[in-house]
Amino acid sequence: MPRRRPYDREIAALAVPALGALVAEPLFLATDTALVGHLGAEPLAALGIAGTVLQTAVGLLVFLAYATTPAVARRIGAGDLPGALTAGIDGLWLALVVGAGLVAVGLPGAPLVVGWFGADAGVAQAAADYLRIAVWGLPAMLLVIAATGLFRGLQDTRTPLWIAVAGFTANGALNALLIYGAGWGLVGSAVGTALAQWGMAAAAIAIAVRHARRNGVGLLPGRAGILRSAGAGGWLLLRTASLRVALVATVAVATAHGTASLAATQVLFTLFALVALALDSLAIAGQAMIGHALGSGDTGRVRGILRRLLEIGVLGGVGLAVLLAAVSPVLGRVFTNDEAVLAALPGGILVLALGLPVGAVVFVLDGVLIGAGDARYLAWTGLVNLAAVLPLLVLVGTAELDAVGAVIAVQAVFAVGYMLARVTTLGLRVRGGRWMVTGHR
Predict the structure, then answer these.
(1) CA distance 121 to 115
(2) Nearest CA among 307, 314, 264 for reference residue 286
(3) From CA 230, how far away is CA 236, in angstroms rounded?
């Protein structure tokens, strides 16, 4: 029987539940894509635009979890549980304030934002209608993200898993009922998802409040704490903004090559979320474990955790790449029956699979540096990576390509070229030791 390697038990205890939660979250989008896809290419393309806008808004604010996790973990490592919970509660209040602001801006701004993509009139109108409803779910998703950061920092990835599974189940049932049962079509998908998101938020808040009361921590926001949470997330916001610009630019290039190209790219980004982000479970484990180890001052443990996470990540990336390549000829029919979209998918899936092993290393290193609080480096190198990929996207956008060629070229730039740029800048950082700052911060 093979001997268990150092840190395997601890990594598994955090990463396996995190994997379930991370896969369950993009299953919201996968469920919507599969159900809406059978309504036709136009609704699917509209969902592609609306989904990109919503994911950009939520993705930009993922610092609500990514800044909270290491802050809470460091305090736990230093033996300060009340301080850890206070940081988490402040993060929840910040999420609520930001979420309310997004609703206020999103309701009147939906048509303007959709118009930036330059889609056909019918696609643009359907996407704007979807956004006007879906924006009501954004405060709920931000609350869930902030609470998830608290739970992960407490070394608890099981609670986010159960919340995500319950939310995914409710989302699937509500969408099927409202899209087809009630005949609401694309609008039904937006309503069902928003309702499921608020159910998740209610559960997450209840659990966070129970933790706070059990340890005598107040529930009212502290002005200093909220400002500290916002400041800690500022660099992560910039880092995430560069990622989202790359993704939005990729969708815009796909849009320039027609509805079939855009619809196929929507399916491919759904697969990217389901498969590649599953590897991000190792990054989540890295955030919590690295933050805890640095809080306790154990740099030797930090290096050991990093080494083992990379070994597991590479193996997982290769395995998922082989699986995705094997099902590439038939996988498209899960999401659509449009022949033009189906013809464009297999080549794009193969290119996506090619980039997965590199993507796995990217996710691990990104999570480790976030756990170390090295957000400033991540922010500046994010801009460097973006500068490398945008000229390639411009070339693809101006080239004369059919839908099949456009989808392959777009994925080659994003899933391979962009990931290679990121792994280079991240790898250069972890070779040294400046990122390993110990103690309570």
Answers:
(1) 9
(2) 307
(3) 10
- Cα separation, 249 vs 413, whole angstroms: 11
Alpha carbon 18 to its chain centroid, in Å, reads: 13
pLDDT band at 223 (very low <50, low <70, confident <90, very high): low
Nearest one of 280, 269, 274, 278 to 247, comparing CA atoms: 269
Q: Whose CA is closest to 410, among 363, 360, 352?
A: 352
In whole angstroms, give the CA distance from residue 91 to residue 8: 30
Measured CA to CA, the distance from residue 360 to residue 358 in angstroms comes to 5
Residues 6+ apart with CB under 8 A from 316: 279, 282, 360
* 180 CB burial (10 A radius; 0-12, 13-18, 19+): middle
Closest by CA position to 44, among listed 184, 180, 186 = 186
Distance CA 367, CA 371 (A): 6
Contact 267, 410 (CB under 8 A): no
Query: How large is the angle between the packed helices 68-77 and 81-115, nearest 10 degrees?
Result: 170
Of 200, 162, 165, 155, nearest in space to 9 by CA: 155
Taking only the tens place, the pLDDT of each residue in 354-394 is 999 999 999 999 989 988 888 889 999 999 999 999 999 99
Q: Which of 43, 39, 38, 28 is nearest to 175 (CA)?
A: 28
pTM of the model: 0.76
Task: Report the length, in residues, of the chain.
Answer: 441
Q: How far apart are CA 302 and CA 292, in angstroms?
A: 9
Contact between 16 and 160 (Cβ < 8 Å): no
pLDDT in tens, 309-349: 999 999 989 999 999 999 988 888 888 888 888 888 999 99
